[in-house]
Every structure is written in C-alpha cells, then in structure tokens.
What we know:
The structure holds two protein chains of two kinds.
Chain A: E1 2-7, H1 15-28, E2 32-35, H2 50-60, E3 65-68, E4 71-72, H3 78-91, E5 96-101, H4 107-112, H5 120-136, E6 140-143, E7 148-152, E8 166-169, H6 173-182, E9 185-188, H7 194-210, E10 220-228, H8 232-250, H9 252-262, H10 270-276, E11 278-281, H11 283-297, E12 301-305, H12 313-331
Parallel strand pairs in A: 1-2, 1-12, 2-3, 3-5, 4-5, 5-8, 8-9, 9-10, 10-11, 10-12
Antiparallel strand pairs in A: 6-7
Chain B: E1 2-7, H1 15-25, E2 32-35, H2 53-63, E3 68-75, H3 81-94, E4 99-104, H4 111-115, H5 123-137, E5 143-146, E6 151-155, E7 169-172, H6 176-185, E8 189-190, H7 197-213, E9 225-231, H8 235-250, H9 254-261, H10 270-276, E10 278-281, H11 283-297, E11 301-305, H12 313-331, H13 333-338
Parallel strand pairs in B: 1-2, 1-11, 2-3, 3-4, 4-7, 7-8, 9-10, 9-11
Antiparallel strand pairs in B: 5-6
Amino acid sequence: MRIGNFVMGTRGGDYDAMLDQVGRCEELGFDTVVLAERHFQHAPLLYPSPLAVGAAIAARTERIRIGTAGRILSLDHPIHVAEAAATLDVLSRGRLDFGVTRASLDQEAHIAFSSPNSESQQRFVEALDIITRAWTENSFSYEGEHFRIPEVSVFPKPIQRPHPPLYVVAVSPERLAFACREGINAYVGAIRTPAELAEVARSYRDGLVAAGHDPTERTLSVNRFIYVSDDDQRGRAEFEQPFLELMHERAPDLKGALVAKYGGIEELTFERFLADFCICGGPETVIRRLREVIDATNCDYLLATLNFVTLDHSLCLRSLELFGSEVMPALVPSVTPAR
Amino acid sequence: MRVGFYATGSGSGGYRDILDQVVWCDGRGFASAWLRERHFHRDHHGRNFFSAPMVAAAWIAARTSRVRIGLGARILPLDHPLHIAEDAATVDLISGGRLDLGIARIGENDLYQRAFGIDPDEARSRFNEALEVIERAWTGAPFTYSGRHYSVPRLTVVPRPAQRRGPPVHLVGISEATLALGAERGLPLLLAGAQPEGEVARTIESYRGRLAAAGHDPYAVAMPLNRFVYVADTIEGARAEMAPAIADFLDRPASVIRDFLGSRAAEMGEQMLLDEVFICGDADHCVERIARLGETLGLEEVLVTFNYFTLPHERCVESMQRFAEEVLPSLSEEAIAAA
C-alpha cells in the first residue's frame, strides 16, 4: 500500500506553506505528493504550472515521489510537456510519476488555449504518443492530425528508464478503457461512491487482463477527501462547514459533476458527502472507513486529499499530522510514526 | 557594478551540476542568475541546455534566497502566452519576487518553429501579441484579448505574480524590429555574450537613441551585458583553457556569426575573439577588462558566462571560485557586503 497527499491549497496557505507541508509529508512517510492542473478562476490555489511547482518540491525534498494528476495534454504542445516533465525527472533524480488527463473540467481553458474540447480526444492520444517517443527515442518525427513534427531529438531524456511511470486520470469509462488498453496506471477521482469505486476497480482489472496486461504490475489509485481530528465529534465540527463551502461554492465544476451524477444540490447534504465521498473523524473512524474502501477496491495506492482552499491551513496541518502519525501506520505496517 | 551569472553549459556536468553552480552563487555577491532556452541540441547529449528553463527556475527559486532569477530568454512564439504568464507568476511567487523574464522572438534555428508548428512569417506578430497578453494576465484583473493569433475570453489569470507589476520583462534580440519594440516600451535589453565589444557599443548607441526618441531616459533603462569570462593564474593559462571554446565559436555556422558580427564577420578570428568577446586571464586582467567595459559603455550590470559549453565542470567551478574571491569584490559593492 502506497499513500500520497493530493495537494490542493489551503485557506491562508501560500506556496511557501505548501512547500513546508510537503516537506512534512516526506518526514511523515508519505510515498508521493500529487498535483492537479487547473487554470484561471478555478485555480486559486491549484496549480496552473504543476511541473514548475513540482520542481520547487523536488528542490526541497529528497525522497518523496512527485506526481501530476494530471497534466492536461490537450492544452499544450507535447514537446513542451515532454521537455518540462523530463527536466523535473532529472532535477528530482527520478522521482516523477507522470499523470495525464485529456481535457480540462471547464470549457474556459479550452477556449482560452484555442484547443476545442471536441478535438481533445485526438490531441490527447497524439500527445501521449509524442511524449513517450520524445523520451525514449534518440530522434523521431511525427505525422498526426494535430501535430506534425520534423525529425527532432528532444532533450533532456528522463532519468527513469524507459520513462517515468505513466498514470491516466480515469474520470470517464472511455478514459478507463484507454488505461486498460494501453496498460497504464490509473487515478480514480474523489467524486465516486465506494460502490462505484469498487466497480471501477473491477473493470480496470478485468480490462487490463482482457488487453493482455498483468494487473499486479499496474497501480490503481483511489482518491478520498480525508479529515482527521481528535475524535469524531470534533472532526465533524471542524470539517463540515469548510467542506460544504468547497463543494457548494468554490468548485463549480465538481458541483456540476456531482449534480449531474447524483441529483439536485438539495440532496448533497453533509450526511450524503460523509456517506459517499469524504471521510472525517477521529483516527479510529478514519482508519475503519479507509479500510472499507481499500478492501472494496483492493487498491494499492491511496491518494488522500487532506487540504483544500476552504480549510484553514492550521487545521489542515493538524489533520495531516494525525493522518501521518495515527492513520498511516495502521494502513501501512512498514510506516513507523515520525517524530 | 552589479554582476550576474549566466548559466549556459558544461563540458562534463549535467543539469544538477549547472544548477548547483547557481545555488553556489546565491549569497556570494552575484546579483542574478540567468538561464537560456534551447531545444533539440544533441551536443553533450543535451545536458547543456534548458529546454524547459521555467522548471529549472522553479527549482532554483526553492533552493536560493537572494539571487534574482532570470530567463534569458523564453522564446515567446513557441508557447501559449497564458502558459508563459502562469509559469512566470508561479516562479515569481515561489522565489518571493525574484524573477526577471527575458523574452525573445526566435531561437537558434528555424527547426524550433517547424517543430512547434509556428509559421516563421508569424513569429513577429505572435511575439508582439504574446507580450500584450502576458502583461494583461499579470494584472490579476479580468481581461479579454482578441488578436490575430490569440483570443482570450474574459478571464482572470492566477496566480498573480509577487512583484506588483509582474516580473520585469527584459528583451533579448538584436534585430531592428525587436529593438524598436523594446525601445517603445522602455524594456531593459540583454546584450549578447557573442557580440564583439564594437558591435555591443553600436547596439547600445542605437538602443539609447531609440529610447530617447520614444520619450524614455536612455540611461535609466538597464542593459545587462553578457561576457564569457575565465579566470586562471596567468593570461597564458586562461587562454589555453579557453582555446576549445574559441575553436567551437569559430565553428559556428556563418549565418549565426553574421547575426552577431554584421559587416565585421570577415574579421572574425581568434585574436578578435580574445580582444572583443572572451575575457580570459588572471584576476587583475579580468577586473580591468570588465571595469573598463562598464565605464566606456556606461553599463551597470555584467552577466558572466563561465562556461561556453566546453569546460569540464570542475574547471568551471575553479574559475567561478577564483572570480568570486579575486574579481567580484573589485567590481561589486554587493559582493563586498556579502563577504
């Protein structure tokens, strides 16, 4: 079992605070820190430049792996992406987990970058092909629908051979099918009920087998919103308001996805979130509920979303400490509590 | 006089060696460290060039605390200006407001444009539009843009840079049109290391004339001058050490040499390079040449390129140490303060 911190921002936290938080994650024994990519209004403390932020993390840490979930491949030229990701792999001495996604959750980014969402599927496929060839081939040329590249040698090459591990953000059945077909590791997002997570995990493994890939050599990562406090009562008192504010007001695209899938906003009460989408409470409760998710999905990589823009930075840090010292050792026997 | 470090390459070192040199400069009296952007270069297995300089700059930002960090330069037409604005703002925040953004219209050769799918005839207008988009993006206010190449719907770009008006934009280029655009806006101009002193003087005179004509105080606009410097025990020893660099320089394509030397391309030879481009000698010689250049050209900032790609890493570090101890204190009050 590997455990990562899916890093968004916190209320009152700046880039320095985030870098301190990641440094603490390394001390607590987290395996990875993972960054999303969002642009414009949707990115108050998410990262429009996750590979640059990843480089800053690489400079301040020694061991923790640095992931993206994911670079939006349809918004950028794949040569830039290949160069930037390989640079991060070199600077971090081989600690990059390269996660990609097809499109932005909002339409605005596609309009601004003049890359229509309707083309994003084809761009995504071409871009991923170009990126892996840029990393692994001495020189190559490419003739696609969206990208035509004369013979070039792209530098630097990543340190990890043949290239950094790939992950796909599997937000849709199509993306999951793509991950199965290509034999790529998958991230499953936080907006899924435990029953759905179990179903996705099953189809991922079946899909891998059907495509001739060994599921034991692939990773399925499950993401949960998690808040740990001293006990359940205090956890709920501290977490309910910031979490509802995030879902109802600060993340219009997540809210849109929730409403589309699970019904009207009036049904999205905290009870509903607690039952299906987030885990909060004292360490014992968090451990029990995480074990349920892990058992149901048989996943070997848990991404914990322990921070977000509506949560006070001090509360986030306390939750992180409790997660690292109380919850992680129970889930991962090899982790000894850090001092 | 302010003295900066222009990090170019290394005959033996990799990215981390070059960036360790930058970290070494921090707090040793160097005012700035600059990185260049180059793509597809096979020499030295691509170790010498930053194809994603913004990622490297983010790493430097997190590892240093005093030195300003310059991009010399990002090639604007190759990337979407919103990406450039976001990346630069991110690095500016991580560095606590220490970023300088150099901008260029073209790269080393036309393969750049072909690989990134840019029509060379559009490079000029893309460059002009990109600069406008970047400057508007950094205001932190909602804006729209409608140009020939870039159309931005009403949006706000985040994060907002730490420096109130955004990272200072520096111009890199020598063409008439580029100088005209820079002078109109009163932009600082980076003077190329490959230009002989006589050409540098002409570029400065021309730019100052344009600045004055555009209503700017020509002496208030910074023009950091890049020079290749090598410090050894003796002039003879230093020249012997730089001989491969000079040979490499003389081997460059005639078109590149003409760009920098203009009508004087025919005069190009070892002696001219020793007299007007490379500064190599003992500490006294280097102090005298650099101080005289500053005085005769009326410049207050010199950027030192310690490695023109050919020096082994260890040799370069020796020269840098000697420079910091024996040359810098004679040139820079900041260096004296740091010591």
